[in-house]
Every structure is written in C-alpha cells, then in structure tokens.
Amino acid sequence: MTTSSITTARDASSTIGRSLQSLNFVDERIVVVDSASTDLTAQIAEQCGARVLTLPWRGYGQQKNAAADVARGQWLLYIDADEEVTPALARAISKALASNTANDSHRSIYWLRIVTIFLGRPLKHLYGHNPRLMRKNAARWTPANVHEQVVRLNTNNSPPVKLGDPDTVLITEPLIHYSHHTIRSYLDKMHRYTALDAEYMARGGRHRSGRRVQPRWWLPYYLAARQLFKLLFYRRGILDGYAGVIWCLLSAYYEWEMGKKYKKMTKPQ
C-alpha cells in the first residue's frame, strides 16, 4: 500500500516544516502552494523533500482535488500546514493500512481525531473528527472555497461522507492542530472565512452543515446561540478552561457574522 500526503498552504513558512517532518512515514508528500504566497513556503517544502505544486487559488476543495489527481499513492492523507501527525498516529495509520486486506477492502475512508491547540492550550473536549485518509479511487472533496466536505466517487449526487457510514472507520490517536496564538489572529482569519461561507449560503440556500436557511432577521442570532450552546455545554467546552470558553464564544461570533453577511448578500436591491 503506497500513501501520498497532501497539504495546501499559503504563507505557511512558520509551520510547513514541522508538518512535513511529521509525515516522513508516507511514500510521497505533496504540497499545493497558492500562487499568491509571498513567503518561503515552497522553498521549505522542497527542502523537506516534498513535491510542490504551485497553483492559483481556486478554493480548498479544488486545490486538494488537483493534488489528488496527480498523486502516486493508492491512499491519500490530507494534512494541513498547521497540523502535526503524532508518532502514535503515524503508527496507527501504518497499521490500519497494512491490515486493510481484501477482507477489509470495504473500509475506504478513515476519520482522524483532531485536537486543537488554542492560545497555547489543548482543547481536550472540543476535539473534532474529519475524514482525512482515503483510497485515491474512493472519494474527492466538494469544490467549496472553505469548509469543503468529502463525497464518494462514481455515485450520482452523493451526500457528504459521514462517520458511521459502512465504508468509514475512526482512528483515535490524535492529530494535533496548532491553531491561533492570539485572538487577533483568529479574528483576522474569521473575517475572511465568514465571507466565503456566506457566499456559499447565498448560492445554495444551505448552511455549511447542510441545513436549509432563509434570510430571516433572527437567523444570525439563532446560529450564534445554537453554536454557543452546542460547544459550551453539549460538547463540554466549558471544561477546557478559559481557552475553551473563548473558543466557544468566538465560534458563536463566527456564526453571527456569517449570518449577517448572508443576509446582506441576499437582501433585495
């Protein structure tokens, strides 16, 4: 079983080296660099032995799919430039693929558990699950600019892959995501992402979760309240201390701002 890792990056010179070094166990490392990148991301990736593709920005989904189409591996592992594969996760991935024999061939999409480091602290209760390891011929990403999802190939109008589907399995060893060191850096990125998510909602009438939305006056407040309750209490973010509480509040603010931008985009002229 051969494996290619795929990383999308723009101005990621401060993190790309660490991320690629944690991927030494794969057969091929591909870094898709945004052509608008202005730092040494591409050079550092090449120094680490990665294969670099420089492409104009077309959204995260299309960037990943472009790399998937030219990858040499039978399996594709998607890791962001600010993430690190722990040694335990590397061993778990290698073991999972080695045991993926003909008797287990229906398992084609593996989900990873992602632990975020925010303001220097791990959010142990607010971890996420994402499909990151998949057979090359099994799935691709939706062409979304941000918050792209995985869909199966060779199926018409395939819904996004969900954890618990018959062809999925969860690897529990953590993938470390080094998120923002300051609230300011979070907000800078958030303002860009909420605009992209609002555009997606305006085009399709759906929230990124798949739920249908309409530009009601109360929508931003509803989205924010739902997100805050879900993360702070249902997901127990309150147990992650001040970093967890701040993360929950900022996530709710994200939903509010996205809803406001969506309403503005859909307001009759």
Topology:
Blueprint: E1 3-9, H1 16-21, E2 28-34, H2 41-47, E3 51-55, H3 60-70, E4 75-78, E5 83-85, H4 87-98, E6 109-118, E7 121-122, E8 128-135, E9 139-141, E10 150-152, E11 168-178, H5 183-204, H6 219-234, H7 241-266
Parallel strand pairs: 1-2, 1-4, 2-3, 6-11
Antiparallel strand pairs: 4-8, 5-11, 6-7, 6-8, 9-10
Helix pairs in contact: 5-7, 6-7
Q: Can you walk through the features of this model?
A:
By secondary structure, this protein is of the alpha/beta class. It has 2 domains: 176 residues, Spore Coat Polysaccharide Biosynthesis Protein SpsA, Chain A (Alpha-Beta Complex); 84 residues, no CATH class. α5 runs parallel beside α7 and α6 runs antiparallel to α7. The longest helix has 26 residues. The chain is globular, with a radius of gyration of 19 Å. The chain starts with a strand and ends with a helix. The model has no long low-confidence stretch (mean pLDDT 94).
Q: Which strand-content bin applies to the residues?
A: 15-25%
Cα-atom radius of gyration: 19 Å
Main sheet characteristics:
9 strands, mixed
Q: Under the CATH scheme, which architecture of the largest domain would be assigned?
A: Alpha-Beta Complex
**First and last CA, distance:** 56 Å
Number of domains: 2
CATH fold descriptor of the largest domain = Spore Coat Polysaccharide Biosynthesis Protein SpsA, Chain A
Number of strands: 11
Task: Spell out the helices and strands N to C.
Answer: EHEHEHEEHEEEEEEHHH
Question: Which range best describes the helical content: under 10%, 10-25%, 25-40%, 40-55%, 55-70% or over 70%?
Answer: 25-40%
What is the C-level CATH assignment of the largest domain? Alpha Beta
Chain-averaged pLDDT: 94
Pick out the low-confidence regions. Answer: none
CATH superfamily of the largest domain: Spore Coat Polysaccharide Biosynthesis Protein SpsA, Chain A
Q: Please tally the helical runs, counting DSSP H or I stretches of 4 or more residues.
A: 7
**What structural category do the secondary elements indicate?**
alpha/beta
* Gross geometry: globular
